Amino acid sequence: MHTTFPRLLLEHAARRPDAPALREKEYGIWQTLSWHALAALVRELAGGLAAAGLTRGQHLIVVGENRPRLYASMLAAQSLGAIPVPLYQDAAGAEFVFPVNNAEVAFAVVEDQEQVDKLLDIRAQCPALAHIWFDDPRGLRHYRQPGLAALDALQEAGRAFNAQHPGHFDREVARTEPHDVAAMFFTSGTTGHPKGVVHTHHTLIDRARAGAKFDKLTEREEVLAYMPPAWIGQNIFSYAQWLAVGYVVNCPESAATVTIDLKEIGPSYYFAPPRVFEALLTSVMIRMEDASAPKRWLFDRFMAVARRVGPARMDGKPLGLLDRLLYALGTLLVYGPLRNTLGFSRVRVAYTAGEAIGPDLFTFYRAIGVNLKQLYGSTETAVFVCLQPDNEARADTVGVPIEGVELQVAESGEILIRSPGLLKEYYKNPAATAEVLTAEGWYHTGDAGFLDAGGHLKIIDRAKDVGRLSGGAYDGAMFAPKYVENKLKFFPHIKEAVAFGDRREKVCAFINIDFEAVGSWAEKRNLPYAGYTDLAQKPEVYALVKDCVEKVNADLAADDKLAGSQISRFLILHKELDADDGELTRTRKVKRGHIGEKYGVLIDALYSGKASQYIETQMSFEDGRSGVVAAELKIESAKVLPAVRKAA
After folding, report:
1. Residue 75 half-sphere exposure, CB side, CA atoms within 13 Å?
2. Does residue 435 surpass a pLDDT of 80?
3. What is the pTM of this model?
């Protein structure tokens, strides 16, 4: 059924007015907003925006964490036929300039003082930005800037406007059609300026419903919304599907309370990128290392049972009586308490996406009874392209095409998609739109992959990043940097990696250690260190990382297509790669080209055979200060194995 987001809201408010729509934790207490109260709030905010001059087709930027009134502001804009544009709340103010000017934004709704300060700082560069409303008034009492006001004032203005124009809201909602533009999401911009991905109500709602149907989602689901709303993954799960299905979205008090809030809410439907699952598991393993010997013994014994029995049980395969009894005992003593500690005691469906997830990590969660699955999609496809059925979840695939999706693999290996959820266009960028959308409606994903015998999609790398080695023992061999990087990142001690090798005779890599995991490892070995840079250059840490690299090389040697991608030399960077330093996107994707230019001296050192290289790097700190970090970086060689020839 064709509809729009405001109509979905009004349907929920009419059919189940007192049911909870949103919860927000404030001062340690969960506050509930019903569908009826939400509809009234949206009506008031829409009236205020109309009074301020927001009209059909204009853009409203929304910046902040997941907050009920920010969600309501997006719905209010859509009710008027305007277009909400969520931006990343952790971006620097300068990163807002392009999207604000590109979309000719005059109106903004933000969360707090931090976001207000950013917009006021760039106002001179964004002359159209006339109105800024804030949700949280703390720290803003003495601000006297033109066009700056609290959302309370916007609501008050809306009540007055609606009293004078009683039919305006309903007329505007009725005017909005399913194929009208509903939202715009700016891509992360790994190269050049970000692009505005334009989606209609139909594209977003169609994919939200297709995903909900696939996993049999109901109004009874509970979701915790804590990832950036500007990331389409979070937006689909906690906005589009929320309105399509009508379940409850819970907004944590702050980023610092997410783990506590996760346990309190006990979501039934959960979504996070692999790094979140990695961080949760790392914290568990660190705590287990500090546990008493009997507890560690119990944990190790029952985790061995879980790894052997759990995945088969999760896939619905029959188990022997002894295995069923052992697993039931493990659930009582280990798996149940562990799921409760993680906040996953009620999870029915959990998804991960955005990056590949390590097989050990994937198996761990499924082994303890968490139905963790992978999905495939992007901003341009409204997320839902391929999903894993409950009994067919595997670490090396991203699922099967779901309802409405057609999938082709081009001769080049690039995946092409046709789906009702495809973007309408890139905003003000017809050339970029023409590059990705064919006349027949196929979308060029830019990903290289293939369908396996079971119809599951396997992703190898970004098509443009797949290269070839030149010279050496593996001359002409395929080089897939992201595939190699993901294999490295599967180890808990490695947080980030950047591989180089295209048109070179061998592969080399930069590595970031996981400071928390390696720091804990070092402390248990009485290895002193004075911060990240010092720890990263310890010989013992290099030995630890070298072991990980050589295990990856052994895996690659067994793959006849990717044996040439084995890592010959590596170094551990003196600083963590950071979005504030332009090295990662806001979704933590590596900006490989920028890193290659910025650290060219290190790449030259890797390939010239040097044993070390001195470097100084400018970096930004969390409090806004900048400084220089310098170090003499060691360069280590790793064992490269001959390709394993498989028997015919």
Report:
1. 26
2. yes
3. 0.83
